[in-house]
Amino acid sequence: MDNNNPPTQTPEVNTPQTSIPAQPVVPQVQVSETPTGDSKKMIILLVAGMVVIALLVGGIYFFLSMQQEGKSNNGQSTETVVKAPVVKATPVPPVDTVDALDKDLNAVNVDTTDADFTQIDQDLQQL
After folding, report:
1. Around Cβ 86, how many Cβ atoms within 10 Å?
2. What residues form the membrane-spanning segments (predicted)?
3. 62-107, pLDDT tens digit by residue?
4. What predicted TM-score, i.e. pTM, was given to this entire model?
C-alpha cells in the first residue's frame, strides 16, 4: 500500500464530484562529492591553523609571565640563594625537672597582688 497517495473514495450519486489536488513535485538536488585532494588540503589547513593559534596563545602567556616576573623583581637583579651548611645541635637536657619547677614556684610573689591592682583601680576611678 502506498502511504503517499490517499485512498480514493467513490462519490455518492447525489454529491458533486470534487477533484483531489495533485501532490507537488519536489526537485531533488544531487550533492556532488568533493574530490579527496580538496578534503586533504582542508584538513592540512585546519591543522596548520590550530598550530598557529596554539603558538600565539603560548607566546602571549610567556610574554605576560615574563612581565609579571619583571614587576615582582622591581628592577633588581635576581639574587642567588646559598644554602648554609647544616649543623646538628646537641640535645639539651630538659629544664622542667621537679627542682626547677619548685624554684619557679617559690620565686612567684603573691603577697603584693593587691598593690599591683591599686594603680588599675585609680585609673578606673578617673574614668
Report:
1. 5
2. 42-64
3. 999 888 877 766 555 556 777 777 777 776 666 678 888 888 888 8
4. 0.31
